[in-house]
Amino acid sequence: MRPKIYLIGDSITEESFCDGGWGASLAHHFSRTVDVVLRGYSGYNTRWAVKVLERVIPAAKGSGDGADEPLAVTVFFGANDACLPDRCSAFQHVPLDEYKHNLRSIVSFLKKRWPTTHILLITPPPIDEDARLRHPYVENPLNQPERTNEAAGDYAKACIAVAGECGIPVVDLWTKMQQFSDWKKAYLSDGLHLTQMGNRIVFEEVVKKLKDEGVSLETLHVDLPLISEINPNDPLKAFEP
Amino acid sequence: MRPKIYLIGDSITEESFCDGGWGASLAHHFSRTVDVVLRGYSGYNTRWAVKVLERVIPAAKGSGDGADEPLAVTVFFGANDACLPDRCSAFQHVPLDEYKHNLRSIVSFLKKRWPTTHILLITPPPIDEDARLRHPYVENPLNQPERTNEAAGDYAKACIAVAGECGIPVVDLWTKMQQFSDWKKAYLSDGLHLTQMGNRIVFEEVVKKLKDEGVSLETLHVDLPLISEINPNDPLKAFEP
What we know:
Chain A has a 5-stranded parallel β-sheet, sandwiched between helices. The first copy, chain A, has 9 helices and 5 strands, in the order βααβαβαβααβααα. By secondary structure, chain A is α/β, with parallel strands linked by helices. Chain A has a single domain, classed as 3-Layer(aba) Sandwich (Rossmann fold), CATH 3.40.50. In chain A, strand 3 (72-76), helix 4 (96-113) and strand 4 form a beta-alpha-beta unit. In chain A, helix 2 (22-29) crosses helix 9 (196-212), helix 3 (46-56) runs parallel beside helix 4 (96-113) and helix 4 (96-113) runs parallel beside helix 6. At the A-B interface, helix 2, strand 2 and helix 3 of A face helix 2, strand 2 and helix 3 of B.
């Protein structure tokens, strides 16, 4: 059986198989070695994610020999938790301390269910507040952005802190994206979601972190002969048992 | 457990998660309902596919209650079988009668292993012979195209015949693409593989055929509440058991 990588998160995960999306790019990169499994839930915060984890990751049936454990899982929440409590998307807001607590719960759940799986956290991306005003998701009578870059940064730092406590890797997307001066236009399509270039950053950073964990094309098993390994003068030889 | 759609085929399947690829588009389209599983093997013909089927589709472990059966599977071979026997990619050539025999074997195997799964055949695409000369995959001392559009058409017709015999649906990509006068440039990147627009055709045709079989967003189960179903005044209500 081919190993799996699960992608768990909110809309930035759910939409990761759009044209040039980071999930599709992972599936393409690992096309002969790994199955990429999409578990993105648009609009979800960590409070709701905790409620549904048992349904997102059902207990393995059968042997319990670890055969169902994925190779890795990305956990990418925080963009919705960081909605401000006094703005138009307040129903998605989760206080910072609860966000940390929920992230810890998610990591514990995954570690218990999948003891050998590499867990990789991803921080929320930075926010372009002007673009958030131009692309409202709900009615916004106050005309103030429902997310700010400063708040997203607080949740990003909290995510990094939880990764540190849990001893697991983290992609600091909030910082990484802002290292490029034109990040607002280059990486964000509506001040929150990702352009193709933004998706590219996530893909590259996830591939890098997975490699640090020993998960890469160099170490993964290709389960059937590559065309380059098939002798044109005796092709069937490659398929002998 | 979320249902699966398997994509089995050659490089046009293996590369289907590239930017705008038809596999990625399927995964995006079904992002909350279906897992799309990639089983593309670049360069493979039906002769080699028959040899490896047992390894591509391992027998289900455990209960045998059909829980592991995918909802649907696409079978997309023929582009390599149709290489001419006296040209530079002759080692991939499979005679037309053997191609039909092999396709029938693949369908029988799948029907036996997965009795309830919808099987969908896809014919090879048309060939732009001039472009094949400009983009050789191997040394081509004769300077003649290793594939012709006429031969690809013969394999496409054979594929359609097998689908008819087996009583299963088929996407006639060879004909569909040539209905557009600029098909060579619009749909093919190197005379064989697909551009983003070519990928779009495959995606749309597969979605249409799946819908004919009763597999569509209208009939599939979304396994967790959509954000539109969550009451902003009482979000947790949506997550009660």
